[in-house]
Specification:
alpha+beta; 12 strands; 43% helix
Length: 328
Amino acid sequence: MYLKKIFLVFLLSPVICLMIMCTVVVMIMSGDHEIENDKIGGGDGDYITNSISLEVERFRTVFEKYARQEGVYNQLNVIMALTMQESGGRYLDIMQSSESIGLPPNSITDPELSIKIGVKYFASMLKQADYDVHLALQSYNFGNRFIGYAKERGGYSKKVAQSFSSMMAVKMGWSRYGDPDYVDHVMRYLKSSNHTFKLVNGSIKEYEIAMKEASKYEGQPYVWGGSNPSDGFDCSGLTQWSYKQSGILLPRTAQEQYYRSKRVDEQDAKAGDLVFFTGTYAGKYITHVGIYVGEGRMFNSNGSGIQYSNLKSGYWREHLVSFGRINN
């Protein structure tokens, strides 16, 4: 009887093994498992990839490995988009990393080594740029000298990039220096993961209507003096237009909107409050405004375009003046 039971287990074991294997395959395909709280297959940043080639996509696990190692896993998709601009996967030095370690272009012949060095270099640029992705991207192309240059001029903008490129071309005696449109070229391989804004409990009454309107223009460029969808938006033009759709009439400039609102302590700020900044360019005391969306972020029109921005650290933190609640 005992031998018979053993025989039955042995006989059924292939079936059991097959069932286990099927279960494992389903788990892998489902993508529900996690590693170190990050889902396999992509970062958790503000962007998702768009039109990444198979030549780059096939190295995703290698990009993941070194992005985790350098603490920039949340920028995984940005790094892969950067790689599309650098090589499209057509060269062994896939991230064009040779020059970052003082070698001639395309000296590296191992794609994994290129990714290891390239991700490390990008992580360094990101940290020096106070985690401003656009500034870090342009600095990957120009070198880290651009970071200080940009910070002295209010942060990254295409105008600042063009100015730096022209200056360096003259200094080096070259016809051109780098690619001042590098950020735009990388961003074409990305799209925002924030297609809809997040509702926040306790937000001011008009927040939902204003943000539904403002979100329509995400990704569009900053336009100085712009105050409507046809012309584009500057910072206060976007807030004025968006709140107008919810029945709130704001003054035109950031300075005037500052005086129109009531000061609110940061810990008491609600989604829908305005956020005010100074020193982002020479002139008035209040030089920039955005819509607070909760969780230390705002939605605003700045030199990098209409986008979500981090308030917890970096450039915007350094220039923050106060939060303001709109007086109905």
